Amino acid sequence: PQPDATDYLAKLNDAQRAAVEYGIDPAARPGGPLLVIAGAGSGKTSTLAHRVAHLLVKGADPRRVLLLTFSRRAAQDMTRRATRIAAQALGTRADLAQALAWTGTFHSVGARLLREYAELIGLSPVFTINDREDCADLIHVVRHELGLSVKSRRFPTKATCLAIYSRAVNTGAPLARVLDDAFPWCREWEAELRALFAAYVAAKQSQNVLDYDDLLLYWARMAAEPAIAADLAGRFDHILVDEYQDTNRLQASILFAMKPQGHGLTVVGDDAQSIYSFRGATVRNILDFPTQFEPNAHRVTLERNYRSTAPILAASNAVIGLAAERFTKDLWTDRACAQRPRLVTVAGELEQARYVVERVLEARETGMKLKAQAVLFRAAHHSAALELELARRNVPFVKFGGLRFLDASHVKDVLAVLRWAQNPRDRVAGFRVVQLLPGVGPATAARVLDDVTATHDAAAALDAFEPPARASADWAPFVELMADVCGARTPWPAEFEQVRRWYEPHLERNHEDASTRQADVLQMESLAATYASRERFLTELTLDPPDATSDESGVPLVDEDYLILSTIHSAKGQEWRNVFVLNGVDGCIPSDLGTGSQEEIDEERRLLYVAMTRAKEDLHIVVPQRFYVHNQAQNGDRHVWASRTRFIPASLLPLFDAQAWPTVAPLTAPTATGLAAAAKARIDIAAQLKTMWD
Ligand code: ATP
Ligand code: MG
Q1: How many A from CA of 311 to the centre of ligand 2?
Q2: Ligand 2 centroid distance, CA of 457 (Å)
Q3: Which residues line ligand 1 (CB under 6 A)?
Q4: Which of 305, 306, 308, 606 is the best mutation target for the ligand 1 pocket, counting ligand atoms within 8 Å of the beta carbon and taking the most?
Q5: pLDDT at 261 over 50
Q6: What CA–CA distance (Å, rounded) separates 140 from 196?
Q7: Which atom of ligand 1 is least distant from the CA of 39?
Q8: Rounded to the nearest whole angstrom, what is the distance from the C-alpha of residue 277 to the centroid of ligand 2?
Q9: 3-state DSSP call for residue 593?
Q10: Between these two residues, 490 and 5, which has the higher pLDDT value?
Q11: Is the distance from CB of 171 to CB of 282 less than 8 angstroms?
Q12: How many CA atoms does the CB half-sphere of 662 hold within 13 Å?
């Protein structure tokens, strides 16, 4: 039977359908800018996927559609969904997903566009991309060269320097303002920082590397350049953006430059879920969208929540309802349910881990897959105790956010070889590679790199170099490898295998656990084979690396069942049947690491809101009474005694099912009067213990 071409529209509610169909008329030019602003779980992402499908069904050219999402995973999900719907409606077997090629994050799309236009804007198309750690390394080198690190021990750390630089770039604010607002303790170094950043930019240029921020910065500049702008903007009839509340000023300016009138521009988001201001994102982008495109912008709000049960929604709405700002969206659901979200008091982080594992396994007993459950936390290291407990009880898990596969030194080694082959001027990569050889230290490495950058033929420069005696036996095979990979004599992905074979003896020489590391490299090789070229592989891996897993290989398990561990930031946009939020205590949410300003507190509240609204059926907020805080600013590490997060005050307790676990009286903190009494009694236990042996 002929499939009904628009069957998929029938499943949408009226508001969603209006958003999907708005301004799509194959005869007319794309309709004006569309904003979908709505609360969590109201189907924004789903509506966007349907809109893409609808575009394809109505005859839009998939190669001229640009879809920007928050992560590579989100882009893949959305592409799969949209093309499946469209293919079904069209009754076609054509590979729409292949044609819908321009999907991804702002950064990965930016990298692809920049390579295409590189020659026109003073870039070399073989540029490599520095991840944050590489950037920190480079800034460290530059800082050292300028003599800033020796000038004063109080000079900001490389990580802080980088954070300041990144914030200035992403917000477009003057350095002085950035320092005043976010880094007041670095105010006195303004002049030095300015010099540092100038030298850092120069170093990146001479080495032909870009950092994450550059991908946006160059794209924004390029899109505003009259000679290129028309061509660039003309490539896309439609630009669609998910999670718009977490874009920064640069990203908004890119959209503006690409679509000055907003024709064919769709953005969706939720101002109550803006959680990336620490990276320069600004909720103003979404709030000001209608006025920016006055009077053309069309706004759709969605009010029905399809994700969560009524008690979870009521509690989440109440938590965000106490924010200083007003979010004007009312969400409702018809998913009645008796179980309220649980607010579970446990003694400490150990008990917290046990509680979670206990409940997770219980749910699995009843048939709920591990994959349908997730544990969310504020910072990556908060899951340490839980990871141990999961390992002890043999529960497989995948961890999103936080420490990454790519941070492993052997993974970085192999990537460095590929990066250096791609771009011999990349000193961070080159430095790493040359020092893999025995007897080559930083001084020799620097001389090698100077020679390489002085010529256009890296392999020839290496060949001419007089290696130190200890490296002489390894030098010839090394030169041969570099000649092959730099000259692209070996095709991709066979090139990867060649690099691996060269690398293995070095691995064995330097690491005791060489065999596990070898397995990682092999896994990486199979991943590499799924990319069309070395350059695509490097770009994607640097921008959005694979997640860490409990599996030793470090590459996500594909078919098996596993529990999801994720930072709240990385959980954005996702949903699970059963959700645990760890450390629902003051000191963690809200964090006591910040400056404590009203804006920061509000962002922390939105963070809790994002976490809570991930849950479909069951939500557990776990409250350890004893919570370990690592705080360099305030007297180092310490334990704090917490009771509860300020975001769930007593007035909201009726919305929760408050429990203690295990069901014994919870620990209490020592009281001041109790301690005073003990001091008076002078109980000297140490002395008592000593007498045992007298
Ligand atoms: P978030 O703000 O967390 O990103 P969202 O607004 O993007 O959420 P979606 O993830 O698109 O929401 O949808 C939430 C859930 O509701 C999904 O499981 C989706 O399949 C379901 N859903 C959305 N619209 C409908 C609908 N019209 N009928 C049934 N289910 C729907
Ligand atoms: Mg979404």
Answers
A1: 21
A2: 48
A3: 11-13, 16, 38, 40-46, 270, 273, 306-307, 573, 575, 613
A4: 306
A5: yes
A6: 10
A7: 2
A8: 18
A9: coil
A10: 490
A11: yes
A12: 5
Tokens 């994050």, located at residue: 105
Name the residue with the closest Cα to ligand 1, atom 26.
12
DSSP state of 551: S
Distance 568 CA to ligand 2 centre (A): 14
Query: For the segment 566-595, what is each residue's pLDDT rounded down to a tens digit?
Result: 999 999 999 999 999 999 988 888 887 666
- pTM of the shown model: 0.83
CA distances to 161, 183, 634 from 172, in Å: 16, 16, 31
Alpha-carbon span 273 to 329, nearest angstrom: 12
For 453, half-sphere exposure in the C-beta direction (CA atoms, 13 angstrom radius) is: 18
Q: Which residue has the tokens 């003896």?
A: 505
**pLDDT at position 328 over 70:** no
How close is the Cα of 42 to the center of ligand 1, in Å? 5
Please return the burial class of 104, using the count of CB atoms within 10 Å of its CB with bins 0-12, 13-18 and 19+: buried
The complex's ipTM works out to 0.99
Distance CA 61, CA 85 (A): 16
Alpha-carbon distances, residue 246 vs 160, 249, 279, 281, 443 (angstroms)? 22, 10, 9, 5, 43
Single-letter amino acid code for the residue at 605 = R
What is the position in ligand 1's atom list of the atom closest to the CA of 270? 2
Take residue 188 and report the two structure tokens written for it: 């006195």
- What pairing do the DSSP bridges indicate for beta strands 626-631 and 636-641? antiparallel
Number of the ligand closest to the Cα of 273: 1
Q: Tell me if 194 sits within 8 A of 228, measured CB to CB.
A: no
Q: Residue 90, Cβ neighbours under 10 Å: how many?
A: 16
Residue 557 has pLDDT above 70, yes or no: no
Pick the ligand that lies closest to the CA of residue 572. 1
